Structures
1.
Amino acid sequence: MTNALWQPQAHMPSVLAGDRLMIVSGEGANVTTDDGRVLLDATAGLWHANIGHGRPELAEAAAAQMRTLETYHTFGRIVNDQALALADRLEAMSPIANPKIFFVSGGSDAIDTAAKLSRRYWQHLGQTNKRIIISRQSAYHGLHAFGTSLAGISFNREGYGSESLIPETARVPANDADALAAEIDRLGPDRVAAFFAEPIIGTGGVILPAPGYLQRVEEICHEYDVLFVADEVITGFGRTGAMFATELFDLHPDMVVMAKGITSGYAPLGGLLIAPSVWEPFFDSPDSPIFRHGVTYSGHATACAVAQANLDVIESENLVAHVKELEPELVRAMEQVAKHPSVAEVRTGIGLLAGVNLIPEVSADLITRVCLESGVLLRPLPDNTIQISPPFVIEPGALWRIAGAIAVALDHPELQERSGPGPALDHVDDDA
Ligand code: PLP
């Protein structure tokens, strides 16, 4: 029986008709399929496998913690030692001074938490109309109810019967700071709770911030008394060549959203770094309210122990500095791709991230399928862009292999037959 699973973001009739790729093991920057093919994991899965696959030290950390205590919850006055220890470590490495840390199970959970806390904060301060959350076109903030409502990728927000699954959200163009100010003016600053932004838009197409954009939107948020939330689910823990993009761009957000790279995917964990301005009203007096939020696995002890082991690897192997070293190599490798007439734009230059945006006549989905035949596993993003975000442990030569596979695929005979003038090739919308 292999047909029971309903896969996320999948067209199940195609999957059950055989359009399925099964991964069964991994080591370093490679994964292996059920039929024994070794593939170069050019995306680190869903941008998560930062330290690479198959690390025994993480398996051992998980096993040791499970033998001691799988987990214990952290609701109310109860806590476990692993959640406390990881929070202290994150406090010490946080790009926000003197933060508090709230743990959940993943990125979508963390977005829900940040959205609820944004609204709860203003309610507590008596600014009860400040409820609208603004996000960017092309944004991806996960697929829970708030993430769906904040989505800047239209197919992720449609089909639920209203314009926004959770009411009181708005979107602005991705790289236009003036548009944010204009939207806050239009809505009324007294109605806007927060602005959420990925420092580098990931799933929406690897869209780098325009020079000065992030600094300017931060200023606008301060001018209008709107919370600024940096979604670092992809960029956090080294992907940009800095531990956090918040440091790289010298930002001062009210909250930083974390997931993926916090454990490199070895256990599900997400969380928030929360600035004093936001946490103080919940901590500073006997009358402070309880933030009525959390999940059974907030501060899951095994996930936290795995996160510690992951951070140990990142630090002891200097992987963030290594990403910075590989950054120009990736740029150079992608130059050959950028010259191809089927490529509209290559978006790269920050850390181990690149997006190859293709002209509409050439399908990113088809190109990734051709690359797979040469052993390179890539992903098409919704705007006809190919995602490149390999594990940090990738060899420099393998970056050239990725670029080479794309360049060869763009000249593939099947593509020449199927593309050219006429309608754009079908491509499967796939994202996370
Ligand atoms: N935010 C961003 C920027 C993401 O890229 C993702 C996942 O890709 C999420 C939030 C949601 O994280 P998760 O899939 O762990 O719920």
2.
Amino acid sequence: MARVVLKNVWKRFPDKPGKPKEAVKNINLSCEDKEFIVLVGPSGCGKSTTLRLIAGLEEATEGEIFIEDKMVNDVPPKDRDIAMVFQNYALYPHMNVYENMAFGLKMKKLPREEIKQRVLEAADILGITEILDKKPRVLSGGQRQRVALGRAIVRKPKVFLFDEPLSNLDAKLRVQMRAEISKLHTRLQATMIYVTHDQIEAMTMGDRIVVMKDGLIQQIADPITLYDQPSNKFVASFIGSPSMNFMDGTLVKKKDAVYFSEENFTVKVHDDHAAALEEYASRDLTMGIRPEDIFDKVYASNASPDNTITATVEVVEPMGAEALLYLTTGKSPFIARVASYEQLEVNQDIDLVFDMSKAHFFDKATEQTII
Ligand code: ATP
């Protein structure tokens, strides 16, 4: 299997005269052998273009692309030893499942027996042996996607590329296939690069995640680092569901402690964070706090006037074991994820405790992370 490296890669598409569309801007990325890398970001951020550049379906405007230490910029897609799985499956309708999976190998003129062995082995891995004689039109979405995966597996490529492969499946099947692709990665010990706009897919599948926006890489990290230490406000808001809450305010220094003050509340900055925030005294900044780091004071063991605020409940969204509370301080809307919610009513004021050791702070102007 193989390492994939992108060095200073740019892709500009012809757009308005004299003003090309920069879809990918100076991407530097190294996907290690056997690694599962996920490219994630909102629509139009350049993730599919990046994948297509690796596949050779687009030509880089600038920069170098390496697969297994060989520069492949001028190597056609069929000679790059990659297999790509698309959202729309791209199966041949007139061929049955066996023929669909065997097609690429036939083109490569592999011996009949070897083709048969590879197809049967892949069908076994994917649990589709029973449907080998069926045509795609009679298959469910999940079965079609398995066939598309099978067609990639039989080729034994150096690198698997996935472009939103689960987007056409319903929610339940998506969760199931997500786990199956992860198992497949473990079993095949292959290098895989996976594109999705779904941050949950990214978090659950990736060894490392590449977060993109506007053609630029925002951060590359493993899922937990991305969640706990986002490099900027965009990453902080994109990773996690519901999103991190953001509140604009200023820092106020009182005696030995530093406080964050929004219009309608003040909380004490955790002692471990105070020094790093020193240069931001009296400057505008944004505090970020995740819904699960906010607690109903009634159930909080660490409540003090320094970490408690009063907010108004706007919506209670029960989710079974827990609920999401949509709240407002009067200035900032925010969400808390709480375990007990039967007593709560809309328009009621509630005291909430912030776990300030988990708070994030961003420069309001640059949106870069301070803490
Ligand atoms: P999506 O999830 O919607 O596919 P994406 O993150 O994969 O989004 P890309 O498809 O890589 O984004 O597109 C990045 C930008 O490049 C977009 O603004 C898109 O309109 C533009 N783009 C992509 N392909 C072309 C093309 N062939 N010609 C012109 N512009 C293009």
